[in-house]
Design goal:
The chain has ten helices and 16 strands. By secondary structure, the chain is an alpha/beta fold. It has two domains: 2-118 and 269-299, Quinone Oxidoreductase, Chain A, domain 1 (Alpha-Beta Complex); 122-248, Rossmann fold (3-Layer(aba) Sandwich). Strands 3, 5, 6, 7, 8, 15 and 16 form a seven-stranded mixed sheet that branches. A six-stranded parallel sheet has the order 11-10-9-12-13-14, with helices on both faces.
Length: 305
Protein backbone atom coordinates (compact mmCIF):
# COMPACT_ATOMS: atom_id res chain seq x y z
CA UNK A 1 0.00 0.00 0.00
CA UNK A 2 1.08 3.60 -0.61
CA UNK A 3 0.08 7.01 0.70
CA UNK A 4 -1.86 9.16 -1.77
CA UNK A 5 -3.89 12.36 -1.84
CA UNK A 6 -7.61 11.86 -2.39
CA UNK A 7 -11.01 13.37 -1.69
CA UNK A 8 -14.29 11.50 -1.24
CA UNK A 9 -16.63 14.51 -1.29
CA UNK A 10 -16.60 17.86 -3.03
CA UNK A 11 -15.85 20.97 -1.03
CA UNK A 12 -13.09 23.12 0.39
CA UNK A 13 -9.50 22.11 1.10
CA UNK A 14 -10.65 20.37 4.28
CA UNK A 15 -12.06 17.45 2.23
CA UNK A 16 -8.55 16.44 1.12
CA UNK A 17 -7.16 13.31 2.75
CA UNK A 18 -3.93 11.31 2.70
CA UNK A 19 -5.08 7.69 2.41
CA UNK A 20 -3.63 4.22 1.83
CA UNK A 21 -4.21 2.92 -1.71
CA UNK A 22 -2.96 -0.18 -3.55
CA UNK A 23 0.38 0.20 -5.29
CA UNK A 24 -0.08 0.92 -9.03
CA UNK A 25 1.84 -1.01 -11.67
CA UNK A 26 2.92 0.14 -15.14
CA UNK A 27 1.39 -1.15 -18.33
CA UNK A 28 3.22 -1.51 -21.64
CA UNK A 29 5.48 1.48 -22.44
CA UNK A 30 4.87 2.97 -18.98
CA UNK A 31 7.16 3.35 -15.97
CA UNK A 32 6.46 3.55 -12.27
CA UNK A 33 8.35 6.02 -10.13
CA UNK A 34 8.91 6.45 -6.45
CA UNK A 35 7.58 10.01 -6.40
CA UNK A 36 9.81 12.70 -4.94
CA UNK A 37 7.78 15.73 -6.08
CA UNK A 38 4.39 16.31 -7.72
CA UNK A 39 3.05 19.47 -9.30
CA UNK A 40 -0.14 21.22 -8.18
CA UNK A 41 -2.32 22.73 -10.93
CA UNK A 42 -5.39 24.94 -11.10
CA UNK A 43 -7.42 21.93 -12.16
CA UNK A 44 -6.75 20.31 -8.78
CA UNK A 45 -8.96 22.67 -6.79
CA UNK A 46 -11.52 22.85 -9.60
CA UNK A 47 -11.81 19.06 -9.45
CA UNK A 48 -12.05 19.19 -5.65
CA UNK A 49 -14.94 21.67 -5.83
CA UNK A 50 -16.84 19.49 -8.29
CA UNK A 51 -16.37 21.81 -11.27
CA UNK A 52 -14.88 19.14 -13.53
CA UNK A 53 -15.29 15.39 -13.02
CA UNK A 54 -18.48 14.13 -11.32
CA UNK A 55 -17.23 10.81 -9.96
CA UNK A 56 -16.06 10.22 -6.40
CA UNK A 57 -13.61 9.50 -4.87
CA UNK A 58 -10.85 11.18 -6.88
CA UNK A 59 -7.08 11.15 -6.68
CA UNK A 60 -5.02 14.14 -7.79
CA UNK A 61 -1.93 15.06 -9.77
CA UNK A 62 -0.88 14.83 -13.42
CA UNK A 63 2.83 15.72 -13.21
CA UNK A 64 5.59 14.25 -11.10
CA UNK A 65 9.30 13.59 -10.78
CA UNK A 66 11.04 10.74 -9.05
CA UNK A 67 13.10 7.59 -9.39
CA UNK A 68 12.10 4.73 -11.69
CA UNK A 69 11.37 1.60 -9.65
CA UNK A 70 9.36 -0.58 -12.07
CA UNK A 71 9.31 -0.88 -15.87
CA UNK A 72 6.35 -1.74 -18.08
CA UNK A 73 6.67 -4.15 -20.98
CA UNK A 74 8.75 -2.81 -23.85
CA UNK A 75 10.44 0.02 -21.97
CA UNK A 76 14.11 0.23 -22.98
CA UNK A 77 14.93 3.95 -22.80
CA UNK A 78 15.23 4.16 -18.99
CA UNK A 79 16.32 1.80 -16.23
CA UNK A 80 15.34 1.21 -12.63
CA UNK A 81 17.08 3.88 -10.56
CA UNK A 82 16.97 6.61 -13.24
CA UNK A 83 15.68 10.10 -12.35
CA UNK A 84 12.72 10.95 -14.58
CA UNK A 85 9.84 13.41 -14.76
CA UNK A 86 6.64 13.24 -16.72
CA UNK A 87 2.89 12.89 -16.91
CA UNK A 88 0.46 10.59 -15.12
CA UNK A 89 -2.72 10.65 -17.26
CA UNK A 90 -4.62 8.81 -14.52
CA UNK A 91 -4.42 11.91 -12.33
CA UNK A 92 -2.82 10.07 -9.42
CA UNK A 93 0.67 11.57 -9.22
CA UNK A 94 0.29 13.13 -5.76
CA UNK A 95 1.24 9.88 -4.08
CA UNK A 96 4.25 7.84 -3.02
CA UNK A 97 4.16 5.88 -6.28
CA UNK A 98 2.91 6.97 -9.71
CA UNK A 99 2.72 5.48 -13.20
CA UNK A 100 3.96 7.77 -15.98
CA UNK A 101 2.85 7.30 -19.58
CA UNK A 102 5.05 10.13 -20.91
CA UNK A 103 8.43 10.74 -19.34
CA UNK A 104 12.02 11.84 -19.90
CA UNK A 105 15.26 12.05 -17.96
CA UNK A 106 15.41 14.94 -15.52
CA UNK A 107 17.81 17.62 -16.83
CA UNK A 108 21.08 17.38 -14.93
CA UNK A 109 20.85 20.81 -13.32
CA UNK A 110 17.34 20.33 -11.90
CA UNK A 111 16.23 18.85 -8.60
CA UNK A 112 13.02 16.84 -8.29
CA UNK A 113 10.83 19.82 -7.32
CA UNK A 114 11.97 21.91 -10.29
CA UNK A 115 11.41 18.98 -12.65
CA UNK A 116 7.92 18.27 -11.29
CA UNK A 117 7.00 21.89 -12.01
CA UNK A 118 7.57 21.52 -15.75
CA UNK A 119 5.40 18.92 -17.56
CA UNK A 120 1.97 20.57 -17.68
CA UNK A 121 3.28 24.07 -18.36
CA UNK A 122 5.76 23.17 -21.08
CA UNK A 123 3.35 20.81 -22.84
CA UNK A 124 0.53 23.38 -22.82
CA UNK A 125 2.82 26.17 -24.01
CA UNK A 126 4.38 24.10 -26.80
CA UNK A 127 1.01 22.80 -28.01
CA UNK A 128 -0.47 26.30 -28.09
CA UNK A 129 2.50 27.78 -29.94
CA UNK A 130 2.36 24.97 -32.50
CA UNK A 131 -1.37 25.52 -33.00
CA UNK A 132 -1.18 29.28 -33.35
CA UNK A 133 1.61 28.79 -35.91
CA UNK A 134 4.52 30.82 -34.59
CA UNK A 135 7.52 31.06 -36.82
CA UNK A 136 10.79 32.93 -36.82
CA UNK A 137 10.41 36.65 -37.47
CA UNK A 138 6.80 36.92 -36.36
CA UNK A 139 5.50 39.07 -33.50
CA UNK A 140 3.46 37.26 -30.84
CA UNK A 141 1.32 38.79 -28.10
CA UNK A 142 0.90 36.59 -25.02
CA UNK A 143 -1.87 37.55 -22.63
CA UNK A 144 -0.91 36.35 -19.17
CA UNK A 145 2.80 35.96 -19.82
CA UNK A 146 4.17 35.79 -16.27
CA UNK A 147 2.61 32.55 -14.98
CA UNK A 148 4.06 29.08 -15.43
CA UNK A 149 2.44 28.47 -18.82
CA UNK A 150 2.87 32.04 -20.02
CA UNK A 151 6.54 32.28 -19.08
CA UNK A 152 7.20 28.92 -20.76
CA UNK A 153 5.47 30.18 -23.91
CA UNK A 154 7.58 33.36 -23.84
CA UNK A 155 10.81 31.41 -23.69
CA UNK A 156 9.85 28.80 -26.28
CA UNK A 157 8.76 31.56 -28.67
CA UNK A 158 12.00 33.44 -28.11
CA UNK A 159 13.95 30.26 -28.84
CA UNK A 160 12.06 30.04 -32.16
CA UNK A 161 13.16 33.55 -33.14
CA UNK A 162 9.88 35.28 -32.34
CA UNK A 163 9.39 38.80 -30.99
CA UNK A 164 7.22 38.53 -27.87
CA UNK A 165 5.02 41.18 -26.28
CA UNK A 166 3.56 39.97 -22.99
CA UNK A 167 0.85 41.23 -20.66
CA UNK A 168 1.24 40.97 -16.91
CA UNK A 169 0.56 42.89 -13.73
CA UNK A 170 2.72 45.85 -12.69
CA UNK A 171 4.78 43.68 -10.36
CA UNK A 172 5.77 41.27 -13.13
CA UNK A 173 7.02 43.69 -15.76
CA UNK A 174 10.69 43.31 -14.84
CA UNK A 175 10.32 39.52 -14.75
CA UNK A 176 9.03 39.52 -18.33
CA UNK A 177 11.92 41.74 -19.40
CA UNK A 178 14.33 39.25 -17.85
CA UNK A 179 12.84 36.55 -20.08
CA UNK A 180 13.31 38.71 -23.18
CA UNK A 181 9.69 39.81 -23.67
CA UNK A 182 8.46 43.37 -24.08
CA UNK A 183 5.99 43.84 -21.21
CA UNK A 184 2.72 45.75 -21.11
CA UNK A 185 0.18 45.91 -18.30
CA UNK A 186 -3.22 44.37 -18.79
CA UNK A 187 -6.54 46.15 -18.35
CA UNK A 188 -8.31 49.00 -20.12
CA UNK A 189 -6.25 50.55 -22.90
CA UNK A 190 -4.42 47.32 -23.74
CA UNK A 191 -4.80 47.81 -27.50
CA UNK A 192 -3.20 51.25 -27.37
CA UNK A 193 -0.32 50.04 -25.20
CA UNK A 194 0.43 47.18 -27.56
CA UNK A 195 0.19 49.43 -30.63
CA UNK A 196 2.72 51.77 -29.01
CA UNK A 197 5.19 48.88 -29.34
CA UNK A 198 3.81 47.40 -32.57
CA UNK A 199 1.99 50.11 -34.55
CA UNK A 200 0.66 47.66 -37.13
CA UNK A 201 -0.50 45.19 -34.53
CA UNK A 202 0.88 41.69 -34.02
CA UNK A 203 1.00 38.62 -36.24
CA UNK A 204 -0.36 36.20 -33.66
CA UNK A 205 -1.82 36.19 -30.16
CA UNK A 206 -1.98 33.59 -27.42
CA UNK A 207 -4.35 33.91 -24.47
CA UNK A 208 -3.12 32.13 -21.36
CA UNK A 209 -4.95 34.21 -18.74
CA UNK A 210 -8.56 33.84 -19.91
CA UNK A 211 -9.28 37.37 -18.73
CA UNK A 212 -11.91 38.27 -21.31
CA UNK A 213 -9.67 40.12 -23.77
CA UNK A 214 -10.20 37.96 -26.86
CA UNK A 215 -11.85 40.85 -28.79
CA UNK A 216 -8.75 42.98 -28.19
CA UNK A 217 -6.43 40.13 -29.20
CA UNK A 218 -8.45 39.55 -32.37
CA UNK A 219 -8.24 43.26 -33.22
CA UNK A 220 -4.48 43.34 -32.68
CA UNK A 221 -3.78 40.09 -34.56
CA UNK A 222 -6.05 40.88 -37.51
CA UNK A 223 -8.67 38.18 -37.08
CA UNK A 224 -9.73 35.23 -34.89
CA UNK A 225 -7.77 32.78 -37.03
CA UNK A 226 -4.56 34.32 -35.65
CA UNK A 227 -5.52 33.79 -32.00
CA UNK A 228 -5.42 30.72 -29.75
CA UNK A 229 -6.63 30.52 -26.14
CA UNK A 230 -5.87 27.86 -23.56
CA UNK A 231 -8.05 29.45 -20.88
CA UNK A 232 -11.30 30.91 -22.29
CA UNK A 233 -13.53 28.18 -23.71
CA UNK A 234 -16.70 30.29 -23.72
CA UNK A 235 -14.93 33.22 -25.36
CA UNK A 236 -13.42 30.95 -27.98
CA UNK A 237 -16.87 29.72 -28.95
CA UNK A 238 -18.29 33.24 -28.98
CA UNK A 239 -15.57 34.83 -31.09
CA UNK A 240 -14.50 31.93 -33.31
CA UNK A 241 -11.08 31.53 -31.72
CA UNK A 242 -9.36 28.15 -31.49
CA UNK A 243 -9.40 26.68 -27.99
CA UNK A 244 -6.36 24.54 -27.34
CA UNK A 245 -7.23 21.47 -25.34
CA UNK A 246 -5.45 18.27 -24.46
CA UNK A 247 -7.48 16.09 -26.82
CA UNK A 248 -6.44 18.18 -29.83
CA UNK A 249 -2.94 16.67 -30.01
CA UNK A 250 -0.52 16.67 -27.11
CA UNK A 251 3.04 17.98 -27.37
CA UNK A 252 4.77 15.59 -24.97
CA UNK A 253 7.84 15.56 -27.23
CA UNK A 254 8.89 18.69 -25.35
CA UNK A 255 9.71 16.60 -22.25
CA UNK A 256 12.74 15.18 -24.03
CA UNK A 257 13.64 18.54 -25.60
CA UNK A 258 13.54 20.84 -22.57
CA UNK A 259 16.86 19.65 -21.13
CA UNK A 260 18.91 21.06 -23.98
CA UNK A 261 17.16 24.44 -23.71
CA UNK A 262 17.76 24.55 -19.95
CA UNK A 263 21.40 23.51 -20.14
CA UNK A 264 22.10 26.03 -22.92
CA UNK A 265 20.57 28.84 -20.88
CA UNK A 266 17.62 29.45 -23.19
CA UNK A 267 14.98 28.32 -20.70
CA UNK A 268 14.69 29.20 -17.01
CA UNK A 269 12.36 26.92 -15.04
CA UNK A 270 9.66 28.61 -12.94
CA UNK A 271 10.26 29.49 -9.32
CA UNK A 272 8.92 26.74 -7.10
CA UNK A 273 7.09 26.91 -3.78
CA UNK A 274 7.01 23.57 -2.01
CA UNK A 275 4.75 21.92 0.54
CA UNK A 276 4.98 18.47 2.14
CA UNK A 277 2.33 16.10 0.79
CA UNK A 278 0.65 16.18 4.20
CA UNK A 279 0.07 19.95 3.75
CA UNK A 280 -1.82 19.59 0.47
CA UNK A 281 -4.78 21.55 1.87
CA UNK A 282 -2.57 24.63 2.36
CA UNK A 283 -1.24 24.27 -1.20
CA UNK A 284 -4.84 24.25 -2.47
CA UNK A 285 -5.65 27.38 -0.49
CA UNK A 286 -2.70 29.21 -2.04
CA UNK A 287 -3.56 27.96 -5.55
CA UNK A 288 -7.23 28.87 -5.29
CA UNK A 289 -6.43 32.37 -4.01
CA UNK A 290 -4.75 33.04 -7.38
CA UNK A 291 -2.05 35.50 -8.44
CA UNK A 292 0.66 32.92 -7.83
CA UNK A 293 3.71 33.20 -10.08
CA UNK A 294 5.56 30.42 -8.28
CA UNK A 295 4.72 26.87 -9.32
CA UNK A 296 3.32 24.94 -6.36
CA UNK A 297 4.88 21.53 -5.78
CA UNK A 298 4.23 18.81 -3.20
CA UNK A 299 7.27 17.02 -1.79
CA UNK A 300 6.95 13.28 -1.29
CA UNK A 301 9.25 10.76 0.33
CA UNK A 302 13.02 11.09 0.37
CA UNK A 303 14.10 14.43 -1.11
CA UNK A 304 17.74 13.52 -1.72
CA UNK A 305 18.60 13.43 -5.47
Amino acid sequence: MMKAARFSQFGGPEVLEIVDLPDPHPGPSQVRIAVRAAGVSLSDWKKRKGLMDPELPQTLGYEAAGVVDELGAGVTDVAVGDRVFGVCPDGAAQAELAVLSYYAAIPTSLDFAAAAALPAAIETATRALDQVGVKSGSTLLINGASGSVGSAAVQFAMARGVRVIGTAGPGSQDYLRSLGAEPVTYGEGLVDRVRALAPDGVDLALDVAGSGVLPELIELAGGPEHVVTVADFAGAQKYGVRFSRGDSGRAFHVLAEIGELIESGRFSPPHVRTFPLAEIAEAHQVSEAGHVRDKLVLLVGDQLP
